[in-house]
Amino acid sequence: MSDSEAPVFPSNFIEEIIISDLNNGKYNSIVVRFPPEPNGYLHIGHAKSICLNFSLAQKFGGKCNLRFDDTNPAKEEVEYVDSIKRDIEWLGFRWDADVRYASDYFDQLYDWAVQLIKDGKAYVDDSTAEEIAQQKGTPTCPGMPSPYRDRTVEENLDLFEAMKNGKHRPGEKVLRAKIDMSAGNMHLRDPLMYRILDHPHHRTGDKWKIYPMYDWAHGQSDSIEGVTHSLCTLEFIPHRDLYDWFIEQLGIHVSKQYEFSRFNLNYCVMSKRKLRRMVEEGFVTGWDDPRMITLAGLRRRGYSPASIRNLMERIGVTKQDSVIDMSQLEFSIREDLNQKASRRMAVLNPLKVVITNWVEGQVEEMEVENNPEDPVAGSRAVPFSRVLYIERDDFLEDAPRKFFRLAPGREVRLKGAYVIQCNGFVKDDEGEVVELHCTFDPHTRSGNDTSGKRVKGTIHWVSADHAIDVEVRLYDRLFTVENPVQDENKEGKEQFDFLHYFNHNSLKVLSAVKVEPSLVNAKVGESFQFMRKGYFAVDPDSTEEKLVFNRTVTLRDSWSKRKNP
User: What are phi and psi of 30, to 5 degrees?
Assistant: First the structure.
């Protein structure tokens, strides 16, 4: 940075490294990257890496590349590529120049592999996967060299070219780096560089029969792109020695790997493989099911980009792994929507109310504020008539003293309208209350109350003649325990697959919800606060005939009360 520039202060240890590198002249500018595998949709865990890398580029005037690690065509699809680009843009970021792919560098990676073979630092191995695993030994026991480790350079070059040309079947041969079978770091015990895959690639078609392993493609792709700070999560610490070894042996641009803690969220699984399984086995309706913690699922449920960015900023960047409570994610969206979402009245479980002293056919327009947190949001007119709907749980036939809603002989204020008193009710043959008979006090109109009454309770309502019928989907935690994978790899305990803890009650559909008429033109993706009920977003399943709303989050954290009664 030049002397004329204002100093930039670090907010985490990675920024401290970057500032030091820029100040001492190691780099003139930074280049970072986000390198997802296109084998599934991105989830909330990926958002931390996205926000970190792209924000660093913005803060320090550098570049952030989007590079797809498309080295396993058997699991990759164009659908995933498109979804990843869409999610990054939705979060509010834009990558430098064109999208990049590891497959852009397949020719260069192959040439570099040939260079290592010529230098005696790579060889073709005929051992099976099981044999290679045995050869590697254990963390406390050195490995054993492959019987093919000392092949001549000429033989290795011929075999590697034959692999490339499809003359061998998958599993018959691999290319391994020749490093040290007794290394303390297991990743340095002659790691695989290439394997044979007879599968067309979504970009290169049938050109290649061999594909690079992650550790071979990743660091070299970073080097090609001039990446200065290659940021990974903590599980890649053991890979760093190999990352550095390949770059050193090839004598190419030095990119450095740095690790930070990943984002872990309770009541979720943070694995694309497990998420894919839930999709394929029908536990959810798709990658964008609003119960999923994919970015597509969160977006459909009504989460905003700002709420996710704010959460990532709040939890920070450290070297200490931890598990974030779901309530922190929910707090973040409440905080955001409280400022932005317009208020509307919706009755999820309707109970009919007849105002017996209201003139039949008379309609009044009540002015109700759109958002008390936003002074410029204004107000809207809501029709009020003789027959209304209120929430069923806003009435009790035999109410306790501190129940400040409707009960026989008690009064309550209708939001933005009048005070009403319950004088009677009607029951059906099963003994359930189906209709209330109330009277209103004409001197209690909101904004022009001359009655002097003080009523403790205020409830929401909708006019029966003007209400719109909509569908509402209520969501709960996708799993019944905080850590669904808690029983994986445990000894001495019954083994439970993570789906054993799937919450089959995580979705509840309400098909006869009544909402005020101002919602008739609500658009897909729009968010509203349904007064006293939570925040809701219009779902893409909506049609001209019927709107569908997803509950994004309740108004308060009710889960902790259920968990700790």
Answer: -105, 155
Q: pLDDT tens for residues 301-357?
A: 999 999 999 999 999 999 998 899 999 999 999 999 999 999 999 999 999 999 999
- Size of the chain in residues: 565
Q: Give 31's strand partners.
A: 63
Place of tokens 């997802």: 36
475 contacts 507 by C-beta, under 8 angstroms: yes
Answer whether 13's CB lies under 8 Å from 317's CB: yes
* pLDDT in the model for residue 493: 55
Tokens representing 422? 């319950």
* Residue 125 β-bridge partners: 174
247 Rama class: left (phi>0) / alpha (psi -120 to 50) / beta = alpha
Q: What is the dihedral of CA 341, 343, 346, 352, to 10 degrees?
A: 170
Is there a contact between 202 and 81 (Cβ–Cβ < 8 Å)? yes
What is this structure's pTM? 0.93
Residue 488's Cβ-count burial label (10 Å; 0-12, 13-18, 19+) is: exposed
Contacts of 45 (CB under 8 A, 6+ apart): 262, 263, 264, 265, 270, 293
* CA-closest candidate to residue 211, choices 192, 230, 229: 192
Three-state SS annotation for 392-458 = HHHECCCCCCCCCCECECCEEEECCCCEEEEEEEEECCCCCEEEEEEEEEHHHCCCCCCCCCCCCCE
Strands 507-515 and 419-427 come out as unpaired
- Which residues, other chains included, contact 306 with Cβ-Cβ below 8 Å and sequence gap of 6+? 92, 336
Query: b/e per residue, 11-36, with b = 16+ CB within 10 A?
Result: eeebbeebbebbeeeeeeebbbbbbb
Residue type, 528: F
Count CA atoms closer than 13 A to 344's CA, side-chain side.
25
Q: Which amino acid is at 214?
A: Y
| CB of 310 closer than 8 Å to CB of 335 | yes
Backbone angles phi, psi at 398, to 5 degrees: -120, 85
In this structure, are residues 181 and 143 in contact, taking their beta carbons and an 8 Å threshold? yes
Single-letter amino acid, residue 519: L
**Residues designated as active site:** 37, 262, 272
Q: Quick one: pLDDT at residue 563?
A: 56
Query: Any idea what the Cα angle at residue 325 is, between residues 321 and 326, rounded to 5°?
Result: 130
In 218-233, which positions are buried (b, 16+ CB within 10 angstroms) versus exposed (e)? bbbbbbbbebbbbbbe
